[in-house]
Known about the structure:
Layout: E1 16-17, H1 21-29, E2 36-37, E3 45-46, E4 51-52, H2 57-79, H3 84-87, E5 90-93, H4 95-112, H5 121-138, E6 149-152, H6 169-175, E7 178-183, E8 188-194, E9 197-204, E10 211-212, E11 220-223, E12 228-229, H7 231-245, H8 253-265, H9 267-270, H10 274-291
Amino acid sequence: MGLCKLCKKKESIKNSHLIPKFTTDWIRNTSDTGKFRTSVLPNKRVQDSKKVDLLCGDCENLFSKFEGYFSKVIFKPVMNSNNPVVDYPVVDYTESLLKFAVSLSWRILVFKMYGYPWKILDHKLAAQKAEIRWREYLLNNTEMKDEHHILMLGFVEDAPEIEGTDIDMNFYFRRSVDADIAQGSKESFVYTKLPGFVFISPIFPGTHTHMVDTLIGENGTLEFYKQAIDSTIIKFLVRRFNQTLSPIRTISERQWAKIEADYSKNIDKIQDSDVFKLFLMKEQKKNRLNSE
């Protein structure tokens, strides 16, 4: 199995989550069927997200503390709210949020960067240096001087849809997880999307100029209602939405039948599900458009 990628002292275990388990638990628990599918294998129902050989038990517990903080203080209150931007426009936070953000980006970077098709050598070298800095910070050996950003994803009125389906970008924002290294000709960053939130950690250059009021400090206040993104990030999110959810079109008739059967079994649960909440938002949008 090899040594833990974080402390590099103890043997790693095989069940480290790339995406925190509480996010996929929330997706499953708030679904209309109680099931979870991945875009990689849309014809297979699964219980959990991808696990890898990454951390030792002690480092896994360390990350769990950061995950517990984010889940309790920000994620669940916001995601279980009917109107997050109104109900939680301002959230105070401690350094645990920064630790959580860095832990997210670090694990994605470690997992992706060595097999990643780097187009620009400077970006690859910057990624290798960032991994070391982020690892040292997580081990409490250094201060964090790099930028890490969090963006709350709101409901999009004119959300694009996957062709041939009624799945739109709001489903991607609230009901999907996604992560990768993004690279353009002039910049690269680690991108992690949880339900309702995006985390971006610049690799090259060390600053991210496409978002407003998203920078995470050692402690402070998140003012979600002030956040804004430019056209570069909008286009990037649309591209990720299409790449991530287009495989839905390959779901077989047999699996659609299973989904319909699950709907029938969980008819009482549907009206309390997050999926039904999205449906109501879409219907309200249609009603507004029809009344104009």
